[in-house]
Amino acid sequence: MEPDHVRRKWTDCIKSLYSNTNRKQRPAIRKQMTGQSISKEEIRIAVKTMKKDKAVVNDKITFEMIQALENFGLDKITKIANHV
Question: What are phi and psi of 18, to 5 degrees?
Fold first, then answer.
């Protein structure tokens, strides 16, 4: 897949997720972590070890989509992983 095509697919996916006005209210999450943060390198290793050509599930996000995001995606996934 071409990176531009993947980015367009991501954009469409995110727009459809956030345009749904029937979503339930988000639960309150209390962050009480005492351990170390997840590093960008740990995310990079996790992405490298993901299995390719697997069926997608509810989120419809494929390995190829995550891989195509490169550093931008790694930064965002790291931020999300450390926020949860």
Answer: -90, -10
The contacts of residue 53 (CB under 8 Å, 6+ apart) are 63
Distances (CA, A) of 50 to 2, 24, 46, 63, 77: 19, 31, 6, 7, 14
Answer yes or no: pTM beyond 0.85: no
Locate 23 and state its tokens.
């979503």
Residue 40 CA to chain centroid, in angstroms?
A: 13
Contacts of 16 (CB under 8 A, 6+ apart): none
> What proportion of the chain, given as a percentage, has pLDDT over 70?
83
Q: Determine the longest span between alpha carbons in the chain, in angstroms.
A: 40
Q: For the stretch 5-31, what's the b/e string if a residue is b when 16 or more beta carbons lie within 10 angstroms of its beta carbon?
A: ebeebbeeeeeeeeeeeeeeeeeeeee
